[in-house]
Amino acid sequence: DAGVIQSPRHEVTEMGQEVTLRCKPISGHNSLFWYRQTMMRGLELLIYFNNNVPIDDSGMPEDRFSAKMPNASFSTLKIQPSEPRDSAVYFCASSRVAGEETQYFGPGTRLLVL
Amino acid sequence: DQQVKQNSPSLSVQEGRISILNCDYTNSMFDYFLWYKKYPAEGPTFLISISSIKDKNEDGRFTVFLNKSAKHLSLHIVPSQPGDSAVYFCAASYTSGTYKYIFGTGTRLKVLA
């Protein structure tokens, strides 16, 4: 049974470039979460979707960040333009229902913006 | 403003001894708490949780204690094993409908053989 799948696993880009991170949640899960991990702030929730609809995007840092979930099996997190301070590990997680205790995390995308 | 704080970035414990990881929170509205464990190059995995109506929850070698008056929770691992070496995140949430987990910054546990 496949877990949450994220791609790419690693991304190195130059400042100003567009970055797109991808996530495939666990089949049958209807809630999807995007997190960012940094040393200073730990795991921060950026946005979450319920049944493909964005419910809370208050954690999105600024307008350079956007997220979409066009269907139940795919989501993207886009940064345009990217900046060095965006360098972090980005995790996607899914759960059967929002509020269920167990969120299943993907392996993460390590982003480095030069 | 960190609502969930893990003030010890790292902890080293001898194999077989008890590991105690601490977490403090500031928002008294939190009513559900969790611990996640993270190995390098992997995503966090759920470990154990506790509702605010309880003060203790046990699962094998792992026990979580909640002190609501002090806004403090702790994770005890007894006995500690080298395979427990990982980063541990505590998280808090409301069950009133926001469904957001607020995570701490993590504590890196190293169990020495």
Notes on the structure:
The complex is a heterodimer of chains A (114) and B (113). The termini of chain A are far apart. In chain A, strands 2, 4, 5, 6, 9, 10 and 11 form a seven-stranded mixed beta sheet that branches. A four-stranded antiparallel beta sheet of chain A has the order 1-3-8-7, with no helix packed on it. Chain A is built from no helices and eleven strands. In chain A, 38% of the residues are buried. Chain A is mostly beta strands. Chain B is an all-beta fold. Chain B is built from no helices and eleven strands. Chain B has strands at residues 4-5, 10-14, 19-25, 32-38, 45-51, 56-59, 62-67, 72-77, 86-93, 101-103, 107-112. In chain B, the strands form two sheets. In chain B, strands 2, 4, 5, 9, 10 and 11 form a six-stranded mixed beta sheet that branches. A five-stranded antiparallel beta sheet of chain B has the order 1-3-8-7-6, with no helix packed on it. In chain B, strand 7 (62-67) and strand 8 (72-77) form a beta hairpin. Classes of the chains: A mainly beta (114), B mainly beta (113). Chains A and B meet through strand 5 and strand 10 of A and strand 4, strand 5, strand 9 and strand 10 of B.
Summary?
By secondary structure, chain A is an all-beta fold.
Element-level helix/strand string of chain A: EEEEEEEEEEE
Which pair of chains forms the biggest interface, and how many residues does each contribute? A-B, 26 and 26 residues
Number of strands of chain B: 11
Shape of chain A: globular
Would you list the SSEs of chain B in sequence order as H and E?
EEEEEEEEEEE
The structural class of chain B is: mainly beta
Would you count the extended β strands of chain A for me? Answer: 11
